[in-house]
C-alpha cells in the first residue's frame, strides 16, 4: 500500500556517546550545546529506562537486541526510542507491570521493537496524568474529574505489540500523531485504540491487527481521524468507531475509514471482550458523521457492517460508500434495540447482497435525512475466549529501514493527512505476508 503522503523519517546529525558505566555522564557533559546524541543500550546505559533518563530533546535511544524487563517512561520531548531489531528487541512486562512503554511528552517516536506481557498496554501515548499513573485495572480509560489534556505529536512505527492485557497500542487523550507499519495481537480489548481526542488529526495506517477481541477501536475520537489501508482480519470484531460515556469529548464524530481489509472476524483462539462481540467486521456504536469508503469487508459470520446506538447517543449521518461486501452473515445491518435511533445514515455505490432491514439500498440511499429503520437477525453464538497469554506468537515483521544508521526521527507537529480520493479498494491479500490468520 502507498504511504499516503507522510514522510517523517529525517536523518539528522548525531553525536554518539562514548564509554559506559561511570563514564556515561562525561559523554553527555562534553557534547556541544544543541548537539543530538545517540545513546546506545546497553553500551552507554544498561537499560532502556536509564538511556531515556539521559536523553535530551532530539536524542536517539538505540537499543541492541535483548529482552528488557522494565517499564519505559518517556517524559522528554522529541526523543526517539528505536530498536536495532524489531523482533530481537523485546520490552517484556512479565505480567507484573501495567505498561511496556509510556509516552507523556510531545514529538516522541517509538520504533522497531516488540512490547509484550504487560497487564494493561504495550505502548501508551497519553496527555492524561491519570492514565500515565497506571491506575490498577482501568488503564486510564475513565479519568474521572481530570480535565482533558491532549498530548500533541507522536509516532509509533514498526512496533509489535502482543499479549498485553488491555490494548496493544493505545493513544488516549493525544492528537497529531501516526500509528503505522505496526502489528497488534492478543489484546482482550483492542489491538489498536484511539480514544478521547478532538480534533484528533491522527492517522492509523498500514497496520495488522489480528487475534484480538477487537482489531481497532476509536472511542470519542473525532475530527481528522483516519484509519487507512490496514488489515483487520481474524479478530472477534474487526473495527469499531463509537461513543462512550466513560470517556470525555462525547460524542464521536468525523472518522474516515478507507481502504481497509476487514474480514473473517470470528477467530476462536482470541481473548474475549466483556461485551462479547463476535463475527462483526465494522461496528458503529453511537458514532456520527463517519465515512466508510472502499473497504473490503468479507466473511464475517454475524455482519459486515452494523450501525447501532450507544445508550442515549444516536448514530447520525454515517455514509457507507463504494465498499465491497461479500460472504457476510448480513452485509449491512442497522439495529436499534432501544428508543434511541439514528438519522441520515446512508448507502451509495456498494457491492453487497444482503441488508437488514431489506431494501436499505433503496430506502437509505445517500443523501438520507429520515430516521434510520431497525432490524434484527439471527446471530451466531460466540465461543469462549482464551487467556491473552495463550494467543499465538506473531510472525516475523518488517524492520524499520536502516534502523542502526538513520538518525533520530523528526516527528512533525501535525501529520500530513491522507488524500482519501487516492486510497484504493484493497485486495483480499492486503498485508498477508505479515499475518498468521488468512481469509478462508
Automatic annotation (TrEMBL):
Pfam families: NosD. Transmembrane segments: none annotated. InterPro entries: NosD_dom (IPR007742), PbH1 (IPR006626), Pectin_lyas_fold (IPR012334), Pectin_lyase_fold/virulence (IPR011050). Residues 162-332 form the Periplasmic copper-binding protein NosD beta helix domain. The lineage of its organism: Bacteria, Bacillati, Actinomycetota, Actinomycetes, Pseudonocardiales. It comes from the Bacteria. This is Nitrous oxidase accessory protein NosD.
Amino acid at each position: 500500500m502507498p504511504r499516503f503522503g507522510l514522510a517523517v523519517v529525517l536523518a539528522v546529525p548525531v553525536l554518539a556517546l562514548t564509554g559506559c558505566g561511570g563514564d556515561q555522564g562525561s559523554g553527555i557533559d562534553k557534547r556541544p550545546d544543541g548537539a543530538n546524541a545517540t545513546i546506545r543500550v546497553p553500551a552507554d546505559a544498561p537499560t532502556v529506562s536509564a538511556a531515556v533518563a539521559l536523553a535530551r530533546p532530539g536524542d536517539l535511544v538505540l537499543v541492541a537486541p535483548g529482552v528488557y524487563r522494565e517499564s519505559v517512561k518517556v517524559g522528554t520531548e522529541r526523543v526517539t526510542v528505536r530498536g536495532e531489531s524489531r523482533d530481537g528487541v523485546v520490552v517484556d512486562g512479565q505480567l507484573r507491570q501495567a505498561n511496556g512503554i509510556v509516552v507523556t511528552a510531545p514529538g516522541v517516536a517509538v520504533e522497531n521493537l516488540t512490547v509484550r506481557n504487560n497487564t494493561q498496554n504495550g505502548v501508551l501515548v497519553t496527555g492524561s496524568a491519570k492514565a500515565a499513573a497506571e491506575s490498577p485495572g482501568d488503564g486510564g480509560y475513565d479519568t474521572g474529574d481530570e480535565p482533558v489534556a491532549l498530548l500533541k505529536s507522536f509516532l509509533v512505527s514498526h512496533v509489535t505489540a502482543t499479549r498485553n492485557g488491555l490494548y496493544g497500542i493505545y493513544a488516549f487523550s493525544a492528537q497529531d500523531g501516526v500509528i503505522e507499519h505496526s502489528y497488534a495481537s492478543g489484546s482482550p480489548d483492542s489491538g489498536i485504540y484511539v480514544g478521547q481526542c478532538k480534533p484528533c488529526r491522527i492517522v492509523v495506517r498500514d497496520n495488522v491487527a489480528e487475534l484480538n477481541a477487537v482489531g481497532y477501536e476509536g472511542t470519542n475520537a473525532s475530527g481528522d481521524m483516519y484509519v487507512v489501508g490496514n488489515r483487520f482480519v481474524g479478530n472477534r470484531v474487526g473495527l469499531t468507531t463509537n461513543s462512550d460515556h466513560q470517556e470525555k469529548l462525547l460524542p464521536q464524530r468525523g472518522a474516515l475509514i478507507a481502504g481497509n481489509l476487514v474480514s473473517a472476524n470470528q477467530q476462536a483462539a482470541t481473548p474475549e471482550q466483556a461485551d462479547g462481540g463476535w463475527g462483526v467486521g465494522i461496528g458503529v456504536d453511537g458514532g456520527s458523521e463517519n465515512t466508510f469508503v472502499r473497504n473490503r469487508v468479507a466473511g464475517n459470520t454475524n455482519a459486515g457492517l452494523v450501525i447501532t446506538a450507544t445508550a442515549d447517543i444516536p448514530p447520525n449521518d454515517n455514509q457507507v460508500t463504494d465498499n465491497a461486501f461479500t460472504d457476510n452473515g448480513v452485509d449491512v445491518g442497522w439495529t436499534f434495540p432501544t428508543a434511541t435511533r439514528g438519522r441520515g445514515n446512508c448507502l451509495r455505490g456498494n457491492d453487497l447482497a444482503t441488508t437488514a432491514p431489506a431494501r436499505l439500498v433503496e430506502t437509505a440511499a445517500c443523501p438520507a435525512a429520515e430516521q434510520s429503520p431497525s432490524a434484527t437477525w439471527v446471530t451466531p453464538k460466540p465461543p469462549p475466549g482464551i487467556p491473552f497469554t495463550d494467543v499465538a506468537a506473531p510472525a516475523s515483521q518488517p524492520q524499520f529501514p536502516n534502523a542502526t544508521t538513520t538518525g533520530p526521527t523528526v516527528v512533525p507537529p501535525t501529520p500530513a493527512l491522507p488524500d482519501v480520493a487516492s486510497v484504493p479498494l484493497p485486495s483480499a491479500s492486503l498485508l498477508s505476508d505479515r499475518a498468521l490468520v488468512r481469509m478462508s
